[in-house]
TrEMBL record:
PANTHER family: OXIDOREDUCTASE, SHORT-CHAIN DEHYDROGENASE/REDUCTASE FAMILY (AFU_ORTHOLOGUE AFUA_5G02870) (PTHR43639), SHORT-CHAIN DEHYDROGENASE_REDUCTASE FAMILY PROTEIN (PTHR43639:SF1)
Matches recorded under SUPFAM superfamilies: NAD(P)-binding Rossmann-fold domains
Homology family: Belongs to the short-chain dehydrogenases/reductases (SDR) family.
Molecular function as annotated in GO: oxidoreductase activity
Parts forming coiled coils: none
Keyword list, A-Z: Oxidoreductase
Protein name stated in the entry: NAD(P)-dependent oxidoreductase
InterPro entries: NAD(P)-bd_dom_sf, Sc_DH/Rdtase_CS, SDR_fam
UniProt source species: Devosia insulae DS-56
């Protein structure tokens, strides 16, 4: 059994997969959570295993309380929970707010907000010294959209990530005295396949010229920030959301 286990929601692709690979390289046993693409999750695990690491793929919809408990029971079997990366998220095709329906908004908030809170609750019950745990870290994956608003494109997604920013601060203060640090990362224009879900697969390339560093970021660069926040190097950092945006601050 591992002496430090990390649960990564949405770990089968993009930023989540990069976090899983890097965490395993740094000695974590990794729970690679996925919602539907078992082949992708198993491929991440196979890569980790080939390098001598420990990982398990666990299916689960983070918006379901029952599924969340299933995910964390798998973590319990792997060893002592030391961290959670709330990375699972969804996006819908580009739309103005006046064209959005209730079902779209409800599903997006169920995954992006409710899912993060349910997973955080399960992690706190295991890591908090109040519950007999040994402490740990939580990193919530937000988005630059939370600050930019994403007008005409993804206002609902941006609003859900704004909620994550507020949740990060509130939870950090709630559990600070219980051995748990809670932080966030706010990725900007990152070159992953996430934008394809929103119907604009080349969005990162479209926006790259607007980035002061003149390029899109990589999933690995975001993963490096997340692992730093989980590490002892960030031992005095909590309630903070780190922008990984290449300096981009203009509206999309």
């Amino acid at each position: 059994m591992s002496d430090k286990v990390l649960v990564v929601t949405g770990g089968s692709r993009g930023i989540g997969a990069a976090v899983c690979r890097l965490a395993a390289a740094r000695g974590y046993g990794v729970v690679v959570n996925y919602a539907g693409n078992v082949a992708a999750a198993e491929a991440v695990c196979a890569e980790i295993h080939s390098r001598g690491g420990e990982a398990v793929a666990v299916r689960g919809d983070v918006s379901s309380a029952e599924d969340v408990e299933h995910i964390f029971r798998a973590a319990d079997r792997l060893g002592r929970l030391a961290g959670l990366v709330n990375n699972a998220g969804t996006i819908a095709p580009s739309s103005r707010v006046d064209a959005m329906d209730a079902e779209r908004i409800a599903r997006l908030f169920a995954v992006n907000v409710t899912g993060s809170m349910l997973c955080a609750g399960a992690a706190v019950r295991r890591m908090s010294t109040k519950h007999g745990g040994a402490g740990g870290g939580i990193v919530n994956v937000s988005s630059a959209a939370a600050k930019l608003g994403a007008p005409g494109v993804y206002v609902d997604y941006a609003a859900s990530k704004g909620a994550i920013d507020t949740f990060t601060v509130g939870l950090a203060l709630e559990v600070a005295a219980e051995g748990i640090r809670v932080n966030g990362v706010r990725p900007g224009v990152i070159d992953t396949d996430f934008h394809a879900t929103g119907g604009v697969p080349d969005r990162a390339q479209q926006l790259a010229p607007s980035v002061p560093l003149a390029r899109a970021g990589t999933a690995e660069e975001v993963a490096n920030a997340i692992l730093w926040l989980l590490s002892d190097d960030a031992a005095y950092v909590t309630g903070t959301t780190l922008a990984v945006t290449g300096g981009r601050a203009a509206a999309p």
